[in-house]
Write a structure and sequence with these properties.
With 66 residues, the chain is an all-alpha fold. It contains 2 helices and no strands. The longest helix has 31 residues. It is rod-shaped, with a radius of gyration of 15 Å. The mean pLDDT is 91.
């Protein structure tokens, strides 16, 4: 698997984790469950980092191709 493919994979995983985290955060808010809200916020943060890593991998690949 090349860096660009890995980058897309990380970006997709990041988006999924952000969506999952948002759902947990909102459900925790609705049910007054601070633990679930915290896990949701953690998933969202993890997803953002995964997306940024994916961007970095794609950018690194495009710079080394020139």
């Amino acid at each position: 698997m090349d860096r660009q493919t890995e980058g897309w994979s990380d970006k997709i995983k990041g988006a999924v984790n952000q969506a999952k985290g948002e759902a947990k955060d909102q459900w925790g808010n609705l049910t007054d469950d601070p633990g679930l809200q915290a896990r949701g916020k953690w998933d969202k943060a993890k997803g953002k980092v995964q997306e940024q890593i994916g961007e970095w991998k794609e950018n690194t690949k495009s710079r080394t191709d020139h």
